[in-house]
Every structure is written in C-alpha cells, then in structure tokens.
C-alpha cells in the first residue's frame, strides 16, 4: 500500500510548530488543501498531509474506505514519523481536519490525547441529524450487505460538491481535479462513515473535554 504525502515549509527559518492536515471524504491534500498549506507555511508553520487509502494519489480503489480505523492508524503512524525527525523533536504538534477529516482528528486525539498540543476542526463530521438517522434494522441490513457487495456504488446522494463548497471557483477546481472522487458512495464506505459518525457523536463530550484541556 503506497500512501501519498505532501508538505509545505516556511523558507529560511525553523517553523513555529507542526500542523498535520486531515482531508475530507473523496478529497485529497496536495491540490484541494494546497491553499491552506501554503498560507500556513507563509505564517511560519511546517505543514504535512497524507492522502488516505482510496483517496487522491494513494493506492486503493478510489472512494473506497474499508475501515475508518485503518485511516486513523495510517495517519497516526505517518504523523508520528514526522514528529520523530531530529529537526522536529521539540516542535509543538497540531491537527487540522476538514469534514470527514475532522472525525479523523477527533479519533487521533482520542488515541493519543497527550501527544497533541491542539486541534482545528473545520465543519467536522461529528453528528448525524436526528431525522437522517436510519432505523436500527436498516443499519443491520447495511452491515450485512457491506460485507457481500462492499464496493458497489448504490448509495444515493446529492451533489456533495455543491453542498460542501460555497465558492463557485473552488467548486470548479474540485470538479476538474481527477484525484477527487465524484461517484456515488460505495456501500462499505457509507457504512464506515455512518459508524464513525455515531462513534464520534457518542463520545463527543469526551472529545470536547480533551481538546479544551491545556
């Protein structure tokens, strides 16, 4: 499994701190989060990002999440490997997650709460609206089907780009970015996202406490 990584660094001086990017579902880091990385680097931070399995320039079936926990573990291993570099040993560490990446950040913080100095959440995936929650029987059926036809793109959805991005210019950039997945969510992917959001919601009070503690 090859996982693509990218970085932005301030020029000519040591960074103020490290910031690790966690992108959203169907997105990637090097293009869709380039503006964020560039601005943070100009502000003096060293920024590192990674495309999840099945996303962007990393290996795997595009738009397919086999395990949300695997994504979290992959990020944790890569981010920790960056922090262990000699030039970064004494740097503070921050996480930044957008949408689904916000859920990844919350789970990363939960796994190693004392490892991170803080986190920034941008429209995080952390709660399902009550009237959108499927019945437990439906969840049970989805769980079984996701093991039989996991990669099938049969989950109906609205245009996620229109819903998630307000800037028309950025919408066009994402639509023209062939590294961003634009098909219907795959069955296993939808199930993993749903279960991850439930997990985040059920532990949200714990996450808020951890992220607000000095």
In summary, what is this structure?
This protein has one domain (5-206): Alpha/Beta hydrolase fold, catalytic domain (Rossmann fold). α3 links the parallel β4 and β5 (118-122).
The helix content, as a percent range, equals: 40-55%
- Look up the CATH topology: Rossmann fold
Strand order of the largest sheet: 1-3-2-4-5
What profile does the largest beta sheet have? 5 strands, mixed
**SSE succession:** EEHEHEHEHHHHH
| Total count of helical runs of at least 4 residues | 8
Q: In percent terms, what proportion of residues is strand?
A: 5-15%
CATH class division: Alpha Beta
Global geometry? globular
Name of the CATH superfamily: Alpha/Beta hydrolase fold, catalytic domain
- How far is it from the N-terminal to the C-terminal residue, by CA? 37 Å
Poorly predicted ranges:
none
Count up the domains. 1
Taking Cα atoms only, what radius of gyration do you get, to the nearest Å? 17 Å
InterPro entries: AB_hydrolase_fold, Hydrolase_4, MAG_DAG_Lipase
Protein name: Serine aminopeptidase S33 domain-containing protein
